[in-house]
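Case study B.
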Amino acid sequence: MSAPRPNPLLSDRDVDFQLHEVQAVSRLFSLPDFADHSRDTVSLLLESTRRFARAELYPTYRAMDEAPPVFEHGRVRVHPALRALYAGMVDLGLLTATRPPEVGGQHLPLTVHAVASAYLMAGNLSAYGYLGLTLGAAHLLEVFGSPWVRDTFMTRLYRGEWTGTMALTEPQAGSSLADVKTRATPAPDGSWRIQGSKIFISGGDQDFTENVVHLTLARIEGAEGGTRGISLFAVPSRRPEGDALVPNDVSVAGVIHKIGWRGLPSLVLNYGEAGDCRGWLVGQPGRGLACMFQMMNEARIMVGLNGVATASVAYHEALAYARERPQGRPAWAKDASRPQSPIIEHADVRRMLLRQKAIVEGGLSLLLSASYQADLAGHAPDAATRERASRLLDLLTPIAKTFPAEKGFESNALALQIHGGYGYSSEYSPESWLRDQKLNSIHEGTTGIQGLDLLGRKVIAGEGAALRAFQEEVDATVERARAAGVEAAWCDALRGALDEAATLTMELAARGLAGEVEAMLRHSADFLELFSVLAVAWRWLDQAAAAREGLKRGADGQDFYEGKLAAAQYWFAVEVPRVALLAKLCRTAEDSYARMRPEWF
Amino acid sequence: MKILVTAKRVEDPESKIKVKPDGSGIVQEGLKYKINPFDEIGVEEGLRLAAKHGGEVVVVSIGTKDVQEQLRHALAMGATRAVWVNHAGALDQLGIAALLQKVVEKEKPDLVVLGKQSIDDDQNQVGQYLAEFLGWGQATFASKVESLESEAEKNKVPAVALTADGKAVRVVREVDNGLATLEVQLPAVVTTDLRLNQPRYASLPGIMKAKSKPIEELTPEKLGVDVTPRIQVLKMSAPPARKAGIKVPDVATLVEKLHNEAKVV
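Model:
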């Protein structure tokens, strides 16, 4: 047997398939903003990014997991490899890629940026974390910052000279941002004095750039309580004074010992302990949360990609292991004198691999669909298309964030399972990816929050306009699948699940309008899961259609297409039937935990 | 300083390469292609020399329209412009060297840097033929300069060093028993070994800029070269698969087999 191939992180063939055969990303190149791009520029960029991820990021992953950041003399020292890795990612152009030329970007469609980023995430999630946070922070400043704030902070973030963070959470205000207490008082020079404390600030300090800019939520003194009293400030760790950078009274109070993402420090930050912390207002006073939600929605898509990428790298590890690891013999040939079979020959191992494939590739397809709508929402020339895409993106965001996080965790557990006893040791990597993955159902809005967001807000938005747009998309896919000769039973099952979801949504909305809000939202987690199964079934039907089209063309790679059809079959056989059960739980407002009293536990 | 570099299109070694059943070549369907890794190192060395001493890097490739992909790759890395010799059909190393000779005579570079071999046929001949045809000095198998101290330094500085008077280059070469240093008068031909440098990753800004860089089209006819191959490929076949080993019961049997069957002791 030849030497094992290095972990590919993602399948290049699948990425090409998803971009060009499923999504037809080239349609985006006809939009004026994207006109400079072509399949050739995309393939060159992906080539560079994959090589960088495989040759530079992946080899440092284990070392970073084993040597987390150190807190010493008030500063955080991160893994020394990060300096070159961060510079390398900036040099690739991925920090500004999707931004307009005015700020140094190339207007790359987010759909392409998403797959390129997925390689980096799969290679080394923590290292990508710095880039993702900086990108989000700089984009916020680009949209809402004053000219001075843009010149001072945004340009340096986009050039990769400084990094950024999002500083929302406080010990008493995590999911409940209405309770943010950090205070801002006006200073004579037009800046604001900031005082307070933040927790779980990822990348809040590091020693590979000279400064970090924290996009911080704080309450202007005298502002009303609740979310409307919250404003957004750019607060640097070191502030510019003349030509120099001086300490800005932002201190690290501690490093949190995390079980994953161990290359990226999560910190407790104290602002203004000496009364000398300055911040600069971003956007209107009292509009902080609205501004922050721009970053948050991008971050949620990014978290979904993190989930896909982390499940993907483990899936490829498990796949290679299953092909090489000899253990046991098929049930019909128990002759001990025969050599043992690779475990991939056991049906149950293939079950676990196919489930991972269905989750990873279904998840990637879902993220690319969401990114595609984001591209249309931001760049389509006509307002109607932009609005429709924007509604669809809003609807898909909680699903695209949660499905890869929750099912990705299951997928990562299966990758570990395939490694058997070795998987349960830290000598092998699947356990570390499992630890990394867990964060994705927690940060940027927990799964519970996403369920409430989907059912309480997104699915009923615009008097059902988002849901109608989703139905149109699904209908178009069903039509494509029927024309391509995809199994009629799958097409019917998807239509059936969609009708079930639409009817259920109307019923629950009516319940809400009748004032029974608790009963409407009681099963929001199940409602989110139902929509996830449905949305991924939509993505698998689209992939099955593209696979059938490929087979009909006689395109190269019959094995690849057959694998796609088997994974689609799996999703329709195993997952789609669950829609009925989940719908029943929502519809009947099944009350086991609703009537459970704290003292009964 | 004007530097000419090459960018041969080769099969990506990560693709599955199969020989056609009739032995006439390899199955091309479904293969991915890339720039020959040795040439890519040559492009990188050219770019570093140009960055240090000023000047331009011109990249050449020979083949059908497809080789424009490899030219774009080199342009995205930072080469100034490209020359494409449009030719379909077989070429041997003599034909390639003859075409490159004409391109060199037209472009008049100070230095030609090319891969010591390409990873498809592993011939390792074009650089040497080219120097001979041109009547120029050559320094083959250029490797990294070990004396540069830090990794970061090695990653920036060209290992092929221009002498103080700017009339020659000093090249550290990999040879069988270690490293040898040669000084060769310009103009000259240098071929690259794998350890010379680590090529940069093409960046998105570089890729976008490359779109507007010119690719000049030439043909063997225009260059006045007869490229009829003098070498014919009769048959290709995969190397025979290794036979499974056997277990021997004791050392005596092993020695007996080594002596009588393998005839090695």
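Helices of chain B lie at 37-53, 68-77, 93-107, 126-134, 151-156, 204-210, 220-223, 251-260. The remaining cases will be described in the next quarterly update.
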